[in-house]
Amino acid sequence: MSANKESTSSSSSGDAHAEKSVDKLNVREFRERFYIPNGVSVELTDGEAVSTKKNEDNAIFFTKEQFNAGLRFPLPSLFKEFLHFTQIPPAYIHPNMVRVLIGCSILGMLFDLDLSLLEVLFIYSIKKVKNDIFSFVASLPSLQLVTSLPDSTKGAAKEHVLVKGLWGGFGGASG
Questions:
Q1: Which residue intervals make up region (Disordered) (predicted)?
Q2: What confidence tier does 130 reach under pLDDT thresholds 50, 70, 90?
Q3: Closest by alpha carbon to 89, among 52, 47, 41, 127?
Q4: Degrees, nearest 5: CA angle 93-98-104
Q5: How far apart are CA 21 and CA 39, in angstroms?
Q6: What is the pLDDT of residue 121?
């Protein structure tokens, strides 16, 4: 097995200059590592994500694992479309789903593909897995656009990131 600098493990190798595990970052380090824009407020929390339906400032929970999987702001339009269409709270989205959506967005940019959510959902089905977490399953494995995904995230997401402000690139009030 070759060493992969992007992966994090629960055991430390003793390298003082290695990147800290996401669960050990403070807010400033988290903002720097994941390039959180200035107009976005971030709070790192432990435990369950609580409802943000009545919160202001576009407050929403993501998981730290989702940021490790490639989640960045502003969200790509495919990711925003997925959240709007499915109405799945982001805290209940498996990191592999983030990898697929971000990967499809990147493929679309690189190869000028103009992939729609409908096309992504033709290839991948949404499946509810343990702990009310939603994931993608390849309906047509031969057509997968994003491959070699990790099998698990080593347990349920316990650490969340409450994000407020213009995290999605939304500029106005919603009706």
A1: 1-21
A2: confident
A3: 52
A4: 140
A5: 25
A6: 96
Structure confidence at residue 49 (pLDDT): 64
Residue whose tokens read 């390298």: 15
Give the model's confidence band at 150: pLDDT under 50 very low, under 70 low, under 90 confident, else very high. Answer: confident
In whole angstroms, give the CA distance from residue 166 to residue 15.
Answer: 36
Unique residue bearing structure tokens 């500029």: 171
Say which residues have a Cβ less than 8 Å from residue 58's Cβ, sequence separation at least 6.
163, 164, 165, 166, 167, 168, 170
Q: Where are the domains of the chain?
A: 23-146+157-165
The answer to whether the beta carbons of residues 159 and 45 sit under 8 Å apart is: yes
Q: How big is the chain, counted in residues?
A: 175
Handedness of CA 153, 156, 159, 164 (dihedral sign): positive
